[in-house]
Write a structure and sequence with these properties.
With 177 residues, the chain is mainly α. It is built from 9 helices and no strands. The protein folds into 2 domains: 93 residues, no CATH class; 73 residues, no CATH class. 68% of the residues lie in helices and 0% in strands.
Length: 177
């Protein structure tokens, strides 16, 4: 069984690297065909089903499952760009946020925090959920990660200050001296 997970991870990593080479500067919303939208939604539903498969008290299996979800989300992003919630639907968009929320990979979470907030026009509908994700990941009391100085600067210079205040993350963005 371990070999299957390793093989799947290698294949997904190869696809991810290949897609990244083809789309180094791909960020943001893209116009998708109906077929691409349906593929995006279907794959996000699959990710959501795996994400809800919380494997209680078996952290090795849970981390492996979460890792596969992260790889799939990266592949979707590199293939189709950031999904417009009005295009893929509320349920699918929530699935995307929940994968980030459940992840314990700090480097990956930071990358996705930037992706989410650099596309912040899509986030207002999901403010409560995102606030909880941010507190779980970066909050003083229960946060498991720390933001890098470069991400702090990216968010400060590229995201509207009102959005940062609205999501209760301005305090997290204080830059160290």
């Amino acid at each position: 069984m371990k070999c299957i997970y390793i093989l799947l991870a290698l294949l997904l990593t190869f696809h991810l690297c290949d897609a990244q080479e083809k789309s180094e500067d791909r960020i943001g919303l893209q116009v998708l065909t109906l077929e691409q939208i349906n593929d995006y939604k279907s794959r996000l539903r699959d990710v959501a089903a795996k994400d809800q498969e919380r494997i209680h008290k078996n952290w090795e299996k849970q981390n492996r499952l979460d890792s596969l979800n992260r790889v799939e989300l990266d592949i979707l992003y590199l293939t189709y760009g950031f999904p417009e919630y009005k295009t893929i639907g509320k349920e699918s968009f929530i699935s995307l946020i929940m994968v980030v929320h459940h992840s314990s990979d700090c480097e990956w979470n930071e990358k996705w925090l930037k992706i989410l907030f650099l596309n912040s026009g899509e986030l207002l509908e999901f403010k409560t959920l995102l606030r909880f994700m941010i507190q779980r990941t970066y909050g003083k009391e229960m946060g498991i990660c720390k933001l890098s100085e470069s991400t702090k600067k990216d968010l400060i210079f590229n995201v509207n200050e009102e959005v940062l205040i609205d999501f209760n993350i301005l305090e997290l963005l204080k830059i160290s001296n």
